[in-house]
Specification:
The protein is built from 19 helices and 8 strands. It is an alpha/beta fold. It has a domain of 192 residues: Rossmann fold, CATH 3.40.50. The chain has a 4-stranded parallel β-sheet with strand order 2-1-3-4. It has a 4-stranded parallel β-sheet with strand order 6-5-7-8, with helices on both faces. Strand 1, helix 5 and strand 2 form a beta-alpha-beta unit. Helix 3 packs across helix 12. The protein is globular. The structure holds Double cubane cluster.
Length: 423
């Protein structure tokens, strides 16, 4: 394995902290991922990307920068990757899926903040995230109160921060506002790169992002099979990798694993036994390396067949219509596509429960586990009505509230096992 110490030092990482993080991640990956009994053929690629997530992939991004490209980091699926690509930039997700430097974090934001927000502060203050350090621009969005208020502090910790305002209702005026924000974002990208976002460039950006989403849709559909041809843990990992990897190479490899899975399904082969209890997870995003709840669920004898999450179907389910013949028409199509995202920061947000129900039907799920991060107002608030409405339709629901620590593992296992036995 190559030695990337110089690259990490040049990026400004704290080598001791970073080594400690890599060691912890490596251990978790071995015990959660590599310990799975059977895995779909084609997962080796995603294992490789994960093993090089802080190495080779960062080297590629540094090389792109040297060649004059800008790297745009973001925390939310509302930031349109199509536009980033059209401006000749590369998009990366800033994952925020693990606790780090908690004591320092709690000196700048309140203790009762969700783990996801605390995580990106911890990664920055502990100097352990090469994606954050390699990014030329970090885009924060006005979504939940936690994020938008914490960005007031975070923006002073990073050199180039851009705040995107987002609507919280689905009225025609809100849609207009989203368009204005997306136009401002294009302007920002053009100013920082000196590149113009053109009709052809945006069309190409839409084509690449649609191809990625189509490949992931294909993978999702295959998860309807029984026995399950891919574990929920591995499907989540593929979705997590989508935020880090080179987009075209990623799409190719998702299609490649789908080819293998289709053959397995034809031969009635799966990675799990047939007829296991089938679960849809719904709620807060599970950023890499947040594998706690999925690992508890699949260790309890159930299989996860879908994620109603931004790292899952909420983030990728609609394609962008590419039929417009003008630049403005393509921008409108992007606005249409993103305006459908049913994040819990919107009010009302009735489409979300309809979508969960659709997923339960499509993947023949036996129950839904609603995952709320502690102190996440939007998703925890919404979990009550989601539970009520799904139970009215006869769909069993377990509401879980947790964080990134391992302290509640025992309690989580007990609750999940009891739910899995009951469905
Ligand atoms: S579109 S879900 S990625 S905002 S868990 S930070 S909501 S308190 S992440 Fe999200 Fe965009 Fe919505 Fe998706 Fe706040 Fe809740 Fe924390 Fe959260």
């Amino acid at each position: 394995m190559s030695d990337y110490t110089k690259m990490w030092t040049d990026l400004g990482l704290d080598n001791d902290n970073h080594n400690a993080l890599l060691e912890a991640l490596g251990g978790a990956y071995q015990s959660i991922y590599m310990a799975q009994e059977k895995r779909a053929k084609g997962m080796e690629y995603f294992d490789f990307v994960m093993s090089e997530a802080h190495g080779l992939r960062i080297k590629e991004l540094c090389d792109e920068k040297e060649a004059g490209k800008k790297i745009i980091g973001s925390f939310c699926v509302f930031v349109p990757e199509e536009m980033v690509l059209a401006a000749g930039c590369t998009a990366v997700g800033l994952c925020s899926g693990a606790d780090f430097a908690q004591e320092e974090v709690e000196q700048v934001i309140p203790r009762n903040t969700c783990s996801l927000i605390k995580s990106f502060f911890g990664f920055k203050l502990g100097k352990v995230c090469p994606y954050m350090e390699v990014a030329d621009l970090i885009v924060g969005e006005n979504t939940c109160d936690g994020k938008k208020k914490s960005f007031e502090t975070f923006k002073d910790l990073v050199p180039n921060f851009y705040q995107m305002d987002l609507p919280q209702t689905k009225t025609p005026e809100s849609k207009q506002m989203l368009k204005q924000e997306f136009m401002k974002f294009i302007q920002q990208l053009e100013e920082m790169t000196g590149n113009k976002v053109t009709f052809e460039g945006l069309k190409q950006g839409i084509a690449s992002v649609n191809a990625k989403r189509k490949a992931l849709h294909r993978l999702s559909s295959l998860r309807a099979a029984n026995p399950s041809p891919v574990s929920g843990l591995d499907a989540l990992l593929i979705n997590q990798v989508s935020f880090l990897d080179n987009i075209d190479r990623f799409t190719e490899n998702v299609n490649a694993i789908c080819d293998h899975i289709e053959l397995d399904i034809k031969e009635n082969k799966g990675v799990k036994e047939a007829n296991l209890p089938r679960i849809v997870i719904s709620g807060c995003p599970m950023a890499v390396p947040n594998w706690k709840l999925p690992s508890v669920i699949e260790s309890s004898g159930a299989v996860i067949v879908g994620e109603e999450s931004c790292i899952g179907e909420r983030g990728l389910r609609n394609l962008t219509d590419d039929s417009a013949t003008t630049l403005d028409g393509l921008i409108d199509a992007i606005v249409d596509r993103y305006f459908q995202i049913d994040c819990a920061v919107f009010t009302p947000n009735n489409e979300r429960v309809d979508h969960i129900q659709e997923m339960v039907e499509k993947y023949n799920a036996d129950g839904v586990i609603h995952y709320g991060l502690q102190f996440c107002q939007p998703y925890i608030m919404e979990s009550f009505s989601v539970e009520k409405q799904l139970e009215k339709k006869g769909i069993p629901v377990l509401r879980i509230e947790t964080d990134y620590s391992q302290e509640d593992l025992g309690q989580l296992s007990t609750r999940v096992e009891a739910f899995v036995e009951m469905i």
